[in-house]
Amino acid sequence: MALTDAKIRAAKPDVKPYKLADSGNMHLQVHPNGSKYWRLRYRHLGKEKTLALGQYPEISLSEAREKRDEARKLISEGIDPCEQKRARKAAPESTNTFELVARQWHKSNKKWSETHSEKVLKSLEGHVFPYIGSRDITTLGTPDLLAPVKAAEAKEIYEIASRLQQRITAVMRYAAQSGIITYNPAVDMAGALTTVKRQHRPALALNRISELLTRLDNYKGQILTTLATKLTLLIFIRSSELRFARWPEIDFEKKMWTIPPERKPIPGVKHSHRGAKMGTPHLVPLSRQALDILKIIHAISGEHELMFTGDHNPWKPMSENTVNNALRLMGYDTKVDVCGHGFRTMACSSLIESGLWSKDAVERQMSHQERNGVRAAYIHKAEHLDERRLMLQWWADFLDANREKSVSPFDYAKINNPMLTK
Fold first, then answer.
1. Is 277 part of the annotated catalytic residue set?
2. Domain shared by 112 and 221, yes or no
3. Which one is catalytic: 39, 167, 344, 389?
4. Catalytic annotation present for 116
5. Domain total for the chain?
6. Are strands 18-21 and 26-30 parallel, antiparallel or unpaired?
7. Residue 57 domain-assigned?
8. Residue 31 known to be catalytic
9. Whole-model pTM?
10. Alpha helix (H) residue ranges in 317-369
């Protein structure tokens, strides 16, 4: 049973130390001389450890529980509270702590969106500052800088570990450029992380598109789920771009869906602010087939702002697993066969294999970032809209053709080339 103040006051010393257990693996250790100390037992990286939380009554029961909860939160994030405490004790008083310089670096980045800026700061606060935030930045060496990165790697959150390494390097570069440090030890972190092969989302081979369409047309699930899955296949946008869509984004007259960089957040719905991933408006030309589906959806949810409303609450979006759940009910393993995101791969592959469309138009419709900085400077304003309108209609017609019989993108392109008849 949890401790009470009355039980603690009544605890008398014995010839040997003994423990009074509280919740959450915290206990009060009573010594023969009458002193009482709060302790927390925990495991970190497979080792059992004990954290000192203070002495009673200087630290009350409620205060000890607050310290326990703070420590348990750190442990859940892969941070060893004992190591953090030791690092803070060892850190000398400094006006140039890593955290202070990191916040200055963060504040200096004016081009970030508000959402990205918050994300960067949160990653530092959650994964880096607990390790080296209070340290004098001029005393940090490469092993110190690697500590939070390696901790993230140990938790197998490899993408976060990679981003932490990039951000720590950027902070140290800022410190060097500002004259705070004379040498940047972060440059020696290169190659420290284990290279993990990127896992691509599963997608069906193109000769199985007819099979997918047959299963989708025979699917007996909820109508909005069916429509969402069909629309995803037709316009191959990202899951969050679809789920959090609002009706004002659709222009039926111009046959265009404009996905904004950010959307108004929905209270209580994680990531509902997400819009176009690349941080700029993403234009999606709408084929005849996509417009037909959107008109049916409008008849269902048009009185609400959200296009894809939840089953029980029209002010909340449909579940993030809606499309994948439908695919599973159709008999597909979404970890091996195909998932909703895999529709993007199938569409991209078909458009490229057709030989009809420029790479720039395909990449722009996929809303991919141009990796070549020089090239990006020249093409970032190019929308290729006329070509993309034809391309999205060709893709919709190609899918319809595969409802009749299986046909490859190349073979279909030989007899259906809209570039010759536009």
1. yes
2. no
3. 344
4. no
5. 3
6. antiparallel
7. yes
8. no
9. 0.60
10. 322-329, 342-354, 359-366
